[in-house]
């Protein structure tokens, strides 16, 4: 029997039971749609996270207290909430004198409530130095940044994010206004241009930046830094600048054995590679979860095909009586299963793409997240291939059951 005739026969058989065919396809549609949707969300999340790191600045080197103990995927101790006090002003001064480094700024972070009049807002504040602004590509929309003189004199001045300025001051000009953090009075001297969500999910438009001296001594009560952010000199290779940072810190901390490092030095590329590895695992995990529904859909196809074999016993007997071989019968049932899953896969891809688009527009229009639309071709190719494969795999058993029927017994079946 020609394949073309087999396909026509299979199609006619499926169209005779439209409701059952539609219900059988439903499991595959849901499974394929889920794979497309979750893989698209995973890709969009990966693009968002990596884009945030890339947008933090250029030629960046990050110094974090604590070692990751040689594992690329292990976070430094400070990132795990362990208090490490090894980064201090001596490290800052030494790194500023390094030729391969253009700018270096410390970071001291904390959380508090900022109060202006009747407005009260929880914020993340960051103590740093003026070099932090060009390192992180922060520009001032109103007013000005604080100066080194403000740092040295412990001046209570702050620069705030654009969204925070709108929440606290509404239509009023925030420059020169007085606010309170932890019962300490600060004067607003600048408002940042809008930056959106930054690395690690921090909304940079709600940040409060202040002199590091004030943050250390009066708000947090520490004499060390939470991290250092460095901009490498453009005339030097970033890897060389990273190695010089490591050398300077080892010399400052009197470390002779590299295994005893009490700090972690990462470049922007390192951070992107690490985040890429983590998000790729997340994408695979999401795809694996969605694949469970594909398995369920495949089992549903097998069950329906087995019922179909029983219902069409006489038909099978008649075909074999007039000369159809076991191979012809197997081919017909496999083609039916393949058609079910192929068309179910196509519809599932369409629904997956539709819901991906809906989610994209919802996030873009109703949140501040800079979500990107991603519909990876790999997800479409994978979904199509898997859907046909499932049809063949789960169609084999019913097809073999049909081919094994004796023509005489099949014709006598009631």
Question: What do you see in this structure?
Answer:
The structure is a single chain. The protein has 414 residues and is α+β, with helices and mostly antiparallel strands. The protein folds into two domains: 3-53 and 274-412, no CATH class; 85-261, no CATH class. 55% of the residues lie in helices and 17% in strands. The protein has helices at residues 3-16, 18-54, 89-96, 132-135, 148-152, 162-169, 212-220, 238-252, 268-311, 313-321, 326-366, 377-403, 407-412, and strands at residues 60-65, 101-116, 119-128, 140-143, 157-160, 178-181, 184-192, 207-211, 227-232, 263-267. It has a six-stranded mixed beta barrel with strand order 2-3-8-5-7-6. A hairpin with a 2-residue loop joins strand 2 and strand 3. Helix 9 (268-311) packs across helix 11 and helix 9 runs parallel beside helix 12. The longest helix is centred in the last third of the chain and has 44 residues, at 268-311. The radius of gyration is 32 Å and the shape is elongated. The mean pLDDT is 80. The chain crosses the membrane at residues 21-42, 284-310, 337-363, 375-397. Belongs to the ABC-4 integral membrane protein family.
